[in-house]
Amino acid sequence: MTTHLPASLIATLPGPYYTDPEVFRLEQERIFESMWICAVRGADLDGPGAFRTVQVGRESVIVTRNRAGELRAFLNVCRHRGARLCTEESGEVRRNLQCPYHAWTYDLDGKLIAAPNLVKMPDVDRTAYGLVTVALREWLGYAWVCLADEPPSFEETVIGAAVERLGDAASIERYRTQDLALGRRITYDVKANWKLIVENFMECYHCATIHPELTEVLPEFADGYAAQYYVGHGAEFGSGIKGFTVDGSAGFDRLPEVADEQDRRYYAITVKPTVFVNLVPDHVILHRMFPLAEDRTVVECDWLYAPGVVESGTDVSRSVELFHRVNVQDFEACERTQPAMASRVYRSGGVLVPTEHHIELFHTWLLDRLRDHPSGPA
Ligand code: FES
Ligand code: FE
């Protein structure tokens, strides 16, 4: 079946891209296991031995802090017989990482330091059986990891890609996200393909229909034009709005370095493949996605405030509630869409209206990643 669309409409990806396990497997290999993935907030690992495990593509990754206080990432697989080392999502080990199966023990730099009866096996080279290290970079206060043998340039593919949306590097640096404190974290288990979540975040055609609170604060969103539509564009708060809160009431002091022209504005950035950054004058909201299956994506959303706001115990609930509602409204929409991706109606896709045309760039990017890869065409 071929689709003939008027010139002003563009086809979306066909439905199977959102439902086919084989497409998801290719995405794991060529996207999530090849690009830089925002894994863990650095401050969550508050001392040596604190760890967090995250799913990156098909691998479980441990992010921890070593004795020197530096972040380290390893594949969560014991080199002996392959048991998962850390079975908890987060925790703290006293000194070393010890496998729960036969007690091989690794230090916090991944070196194999002890194994029962190893003295009787002199042929085991301890240096060769350390944990497999994963590349790690810190930015915006988060540990970003990359499973590729030769990671792509972090400066180009992460920082550059984010800055491109804002127009200049200073715009994002002024929020000093790495110095902010965690006011709230909410984890959403979304029964939808990760691309539906990205596409939804990129457009605002749905804002007037499903986001009554957000369009009250950002009236231009009611027209359907997303802040991402124009480079460097921040959506302006409505005239009677005092702050980025669920009822438009006052928020907190403007973050110290945020410029006058950034005041009373909301900026949205997608850092492919799995991060959304939302900037408002008094806080930053950062979404990290963990695609677990073709129809399931866990999203961790952090609300970050000036340390003084969090330390003083000030109530942030009106501030958090605005984007929490937006998240719930968005994810419900994605979950309503997911089952229909398997319908015969969507076999050759749907359409993008003109205000959504920039989503086509995401589709082109995705198809390029799935096609042009050293291991061969899809
Ligand atoms: Fe880890 Fe045996 S599998 S010690
Ligand atoms: Fe939305």
UniProtKB/TrEMBL annotation:
Iron-sulfur found in the keyword field: yes
Rieske domain location: 36-145
Any GO MF annotation of the entry: dioxygenase activity
Obligatory cofactor(s): Fe cation
InterPro entries associated with the record: Rieske_2Fe-2S, Rieske_2Fe-2S_sf, Ring_hydroxy_dOase_asu_C_dom, Rng_hydr_dOase-A
Pfam families: Rieske, Ring_hydroxyl_A
Domain of life of the source: Bacteria
Keywords: 2Fe-2S, Dioxygenase, Iron, Iron-sulfur, Metal-binding, Oxidoreductase
Keyword Phosphoprotein set for record: no
Name of the protein in question: Aromatic ring-hydroxylating dioxygenase subunit alpha
Native species: Streptomyces solicathayae
